[in-house]
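Quick check before the chapter quiz. The format below is the same one you will see on the exam, so make sure you can read both the input and the output lines.
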Amino acid sequence: MLKEKNFRHLANMITPLVNSLIKRFSDFFELSPSINEAILATCFHPCYKLRWISNEYDHEKNRIQNLCINAAENIFNNDITNNSNSSDEDDDNFIVYSSQPEAKTIKKADLEVVTFFNDKAKSLNILNNYPIIKKLFIRFNTSLCSSAPVERMFSMAGFINNPTRNKLSDITFEKLVFLKGNKDKLTI
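Here is the expected output.
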């Protein structure tokens, strides 16, 4: 699309920029399993759910739905395990031979995921209607609240990226920041 435009000074940059974007984000473009957490973060956001998956990736839609259901089942099973551990001691001596409760929990998690995906609302308030989805949204769409390590890293990067070293490649810059940040852990 950009090649069709008549750019006078930037025409030679379009192809390398597009190629570098494709190289850098190829896992994201191909929806590879290495980015499952990013996929889950998108799917559990009410604005996106499964709407972002284009028709050319329909073959991946079932894998992504199963990924979401498995994540919901894991959260739900962890909640049940935590709640059962906090029950009375009398319950610990009682042995249950039936597997029906486990089947019901999986179906409840599956049902909540499917209902969430079919809900047309895009507001964050709908997460209150889906407790499992809300926990998954918080898990995959929030970050740690500490800014001190990030500020230290940017300060360190500022020392490396100074006017006399402005021609560093991205890879070299990244390596230098990594080495400077971990110099106390390196043994020579």
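If your answer matched, good. DSSP finds nine helices and no strands in the chain.
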